[in-house]
Design a protein that fits this description.
Layout lengths: L1 H23 L3 E7 L2 H15 L5 E6 L13 E6 L4 E8 L5 E8 L3 H27 L52 E14 L2 E13 L7 E10 L2 E5 L2 E19 L4 E20 L10 E17 L4 E12 L4 E6 L2 E7 L3 E12 L13
Parallel strand pairs: 1-2, 1-3
Antiparallel strand pairs: 3-4, 4-5, 6-7, 6-16, 7-8, 8-10, 9-10, 10-11, 11-12, 12-13, 13-16, 14-15
Helix pairs in contact: 2-3
Length: about 375
């Protein structure tokens, strides 16, 4: 009787020990976030939904918190920085600390950045599990050698049909998922469009015009930088003196470096700075008695230009741009008429002159300006 009680007590103690061992070996992943409270809440819900497919527990915590103590290290530790438009993720092995993956990607909002980071972590962990399954899978047994068919003892005996060899089971390897970073885009983007321009010549002379724009972007840098080339020609302005007249027509070529700051999925605030050349074409249109008119002349003036404005998405590849700013003339022109009393100023162009650019453009590359990469 005493022996039975001792054995029964030993069995009762073994059951919780097995349960503790099962809990300790449960696989888990740790995600550490540098970002806002909104990003933390979104990452918790998104990561939990993804890693449930793999049967893995996921813990999400800010980087400011210390690493939780556990009997077994996590399968992987991911440190995620959600600071749109530029975001980063670094994934290391939970046991050895070896780096598994490192990405930098560009997103316009916290929601898309969290979605992208969670999918990157999911694909890396899924790939690790697939590799571990292949390494632990037993090798397939060799096919049994075919037995030689004995010759029939007499013609009257029907030959025995050969026994088919045993089928060899093959283990299909799981397909590897190609991890594609949402920030991976074309190295160069191109936008072409039409623009409406307004420039000032001074003395209340505001001249409208139109032209073409072309812009080169660099999506692979992770920063929304670009180079804008705008060529415009404007309506002529008349200069008159004692019945004689001439028209002054300005044309401008500007080269600007641009920087976009996303305000949402379809809106961005943009800056531009650079320089250009203004071509002033003076052409006589009428003459008068006693007034000597010179022939057509061309004059060039260097410009420094600064603009700021908005870009608004219209469609998948089309958008509007609206910029306002100033041109600073490096060598302002003055137009005069020679009289007996001396020179009479017909037009003096100031050094600082306002400018406005309104345009519509379309992206010709595979990475449109307002596209948001999605992990699939």
């Amino acid at each position: 009787m005493a022996m039975a009680l001792v054995l029964g007590g030993g069995a009762a103690k073994a059951m919780p020990a097995d349960t503790a061992t099962s809990d300790a070996t449960e696989q888990r992943v740790l995600l550490r976030l540098l970002g806002s409270e909104q990003a933390l809440a979104l990452l918790e819900s998104t990561a939990e939904e993804l890693f449930q497919r793999l049967g893995i527990q996921v813990d999400v915590a800010p980087v400011s918190e210390e690493l939780p103590q556990a009997s077994e290290p996590p399968l992987a530790i991911a440190t995620i920085e959600i600071t749109p438009p530029l975001c980063r993720i670094v994934i290391v092995d939970g046991g050895s600390g070896a780096e598994l993956d490192r990405r930098s990607f560009s997103e316009s909002s916290v929601e898309t950045a969290v979605e992208a980071a969670a999918h990157i972590a999911y694909f890396v962990v899924e790939t690790r599990l697939a590799e571990a399954d292949r390494a632990s899978a037993p090798a397939p047994p060799p096919a049994p050698a075919a037995q030689p068919q004995p010759a029939p003892s007499s013609p009257a005996v029907a030959p025995v049909p050969p026994t088919p060899g045993a089928a060899v089971a093959t283990i299909a390897e799981p397909e590897e998922h190609e991890t594609v970073s949402p920030g991976e885009r074309g190295s160069v983007g191109v936008d072409l469009g039409l623009t409406f321009s307004v420039v000032s010549l001074g003395s209340g002379r505001v001249r409208p015009g139109s032209g073409l724009t072309g812009e080169i972007r660099f999506p692979s840098l992770g920063v929304p930088l670009g180079v804008l080339l705008a060529a415009t020609t404007h309506a002529a302005s008349d200069l008159e003196f004692q019945g004689a007249s001439a028209e002054l027509r300005p044309s401008v070529l500007r080269l600007l470096a641009t920087l976009d700051l996303p305000l949402g999925s379809a809106l961005a605030f943009a800056f531009g700075a650079g320089g250009g050349v203004e071509w002033l074409r003076l052409t006589p249109t009428a003459s008068a008695d006693g007034v000597q008119v010179s022939g057509a002349e061309s004059m060039f003036e260097g410009l420094l230009t600064g603009v700021a404005g908005l870009r608004i998405k219209l469609a998948e590849r089309a958008f509007l741009s609206a910029f306002g700013g100033v041109d600073i003339g490096l060598n302002p022109k003055t137009f005069t008429a020679n009289t007996a009393a001396g020179q009479e100023v017909l037009l003096h162009m100031p050094s600082v002159r306002p400018v406005m650019l309104l345009g519509a453009a379309a992206s010709l590359d595979q990475s449109p300006r307002f596209s948001a990469a999605e992990a699939r």
